[in-house]
Amino acid sequence: MRDYAIDLFDRWTQMWNGDLALVDEIMALAFTLRYAQPGADAYDSVKDRATFAAAIDTFRAERPGLEFSTQGTPVVEMDDTRTGIIARPYGARITAPDGTIVRELSGTDILRAENGQIVEVWSVSGGAEGRSFYA
């Protein structure tokens, strides 16, 4: 189940990088988002897949050059029904149109899954003014 959880987190990251088809694949029909980043209170009311896909699309449109990646070692507690938790640091790199790295940030996401789909998310970072764990 460890491999499944790590793959779930990888798909979560791909979703945030714009693969919005993954919303229907990895998110439960109803879920709770808990974002602690400054300015992330708009996610408090997102509870369904369609609204989440639209929110991610808007987020990406407002932040050209942003790409997420996994970082660090994942912490996994998941049973054979694909129910449990994966926690992992992530990186966010902002790149200018000429390819210059503008900023690198880090955060940590914790995903709680039931039967292989995400039902709850906790996400913490310093937002746009944050810093990288690995700088």
Describe the model.
By secondary structure, the protein is of the alpha+beta class. The protein is built from three helices and six strands; from the N terminus they run ααβαβββββ. The protein has helices at 2-16, 22-26, 49-61, and strands at 27-35, 66-70, 75-78, 84-95, 101-114, 117-125. Strands 1, 2, 3, 4, 5 and 6 form a six-stranded mixed sheet that branches. A hairpin with a 5-residue loop joins strand 4 (84-95) and strand 5 (101-114). The N and C termini lie far apart (31 Å). The model has no long low-confidence stretch (mean pLDDT 95).
List how many beta strands DSSP finds. Answer: 6
Task: Determine the number of helices (DSSP H or I, runs of at least 4 residues).
Answer: 3
Sheet-strand content, in percent, reads 35-45%
Structural class call reads alpha+beta
How far apart the termini lie comes to: 31 Å
Low-confidence stretches: none
Q: Can you summarize the main beta sheet?
A: 6 strands, mixed
Q: What is the typical, i.e. mean, pLDDT?
A: 95
Which series of helices and strands comes N to C? HHEHEEEEE
**Outline:** globular
Q: What Rg, in angstroms, do the CA atoms define?
A: 14 Å
Estimate the helix proportion, in percent: 10-25%
Give the gist of this structure.
This protein is 24% helix and 39% strand. The chain is of the alpha+beta class and 135 residues long.
